[in-house]
């Protein structure tokens, strides 16, 4: 990492009102304005960045909070292009928001194959306070996550539960993958060197 360079592009996708902006607000600024400020839909997208320390390595996450409104859907590809991680948000109290993430999974699988998917079930505090408000079956969410090899996090932007954990997992996975790639590249390089060695070298 050098200067203000963004190391990992992370994009948030999901239905309008799913809780994407609050998730980013909580992570970047450790605050939740949901009880004091009326809901305002995101227009286009918003960008924020945060430097994190993963086992002594500092990396910068560049986070794109996209608009959930279907009106802006065609623009979303601009925001998820080259993203290393996508957080697909759904609201635990709204089944239609869960159904919507299948659309985003399809988009990413078609256009951004290398992007790692994280599924984020938001507003956990609401269902903790009243389990009857749960509109998405936990097993169904787990099954979908397993299907697409995604990790599933249940979060609350009100309490902050699981939010640092989610972004830390993204950063850690990124670093592990970078390391693996470097190792792979070294291996390829060694193979190439072996292939090019003159025959006389084999016996030495
Ligand atoms: N209790 C509770 N309310 C939440 C939580 N997250 C979001 N909300 C509320 O849900 C509403 C929508 O949240 P936003 O974060 O603005 O939703 P969004 O997905 O960014 O919406 P768009 O910008 O339209 O795409 C707001 O009224 C928030 O206060 C949460 O974790 N707990």
Automatic annotation (TrEMBL):
Keyword tags: Autophagy, Cytoplasm, Cytoplasmic vesicle, Cytoskeleton, GTP-binding, Hydrolase, Lipoprotein, Magnesium, Membrane, Metal-binding, Nucleotide-binding, Phosphoprotein, Prenylation, Protein transport, Transport
Membrane topology, from the record: Lipid-anchor
SMART domains according to UniProt: RAB (SM00175), RAN (SM00176), RAS (SM00173), RHO (SM00174)
UniProt entry tagged with the keyword Manganese: no
Localization per Swiss-Prot or TrEMBL: Cytoplasm, Cytoskeleton, Spindle; Cytoplasm, Cytosol; Cytoplasm, Perinuclear region; Cytoplasmic vesicle, Autophagosome membrane
Signal peptide: none
UniProt-listed PROSITE patterns: RAB, RAS, RHO
EC number(s) given by UniProt: 3.6.5.2
Cofactor(s) demanded: Mg(2+)
One annotated Gene Ontology cellular component of this protein: spindle
Keyword Phosphoprotein among record annotations: yes
Molecular function via GO: G protein activity; GTP binding; metal ion binding
Gene Ontology annotations of biological process type: autophagy; protein transport
Summary of subunit composition and partner proteins: Interacts with ZFYVE20. Does not interact with the GDP dissociation inhibitors ARHGDIA and ARHGDIB.
Family in the record: Belongs to the small GTPase superfamily. Rab family.
Function: The small GTPases Rab are key regulators of intracellular membrane trafficking, from the formation of transport vesicles to their fusion with membranes. Rabs cycle between an inactive GDP-bound form and an active GTP-bound form that is able to recruit to membranes different sets of downstream effectors directly responsible for vesicle formation, movement, tethering and fusion. RAB24 is an atypical RAB protein that presents low GTPase activity and thereby exists predominantly in the GTP-bound active state. RAB24 is required for the clearance of late autophagic vacuoles under basal conditions.
This protein's name: Ras-related protein Rab-24
Lineage, highest ranks first: Eukaryota, Metazoa, Spiralia, Lophotrochozoa, Mollusca
């Amino acid at each position: 990492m050098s200067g203000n360079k963004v190391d990992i592009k992370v994009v948030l996708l999901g239905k309008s009102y799913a809780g994407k902006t609050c998730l980013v607000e909580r992570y970047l600024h450790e605050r939740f304005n949901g009880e004091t400020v009326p809901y305002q839909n995101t227009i286009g997208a918003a960008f924020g960045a945060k430097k994190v320390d993963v086992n002594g390595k500092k990396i910068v996450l560049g986070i794109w909070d996209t608009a959930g409104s279907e009106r802006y859907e065609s623009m979303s590809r601009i925001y998820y292009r080259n993203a290393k991680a996508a957080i697909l948000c759904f609201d635990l109290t709204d089944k239609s928001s869960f159904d919507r993430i299948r659309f985003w999974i399809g988009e990413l699988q078609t256009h951004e194959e290398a992007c790692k998917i994280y599924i984020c079930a938001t507003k956990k505090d609401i269902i903790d306070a009243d389990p009857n408000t749960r509109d998405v079956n936990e097993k169904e969410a787990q099954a979908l996550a397993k299907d697409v090899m995604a990790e599933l996090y249940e979060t609350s932007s009100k309490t902050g539960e699981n939010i640092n954990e989610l972004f830390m997992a993204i950063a850690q996975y990124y670093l592990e993958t970078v390391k693996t790639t470097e190792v792979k590249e070294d291996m390829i390089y060694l193979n190439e060197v072996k292939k090019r060695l003159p025959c006389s070298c084999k016996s030495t």
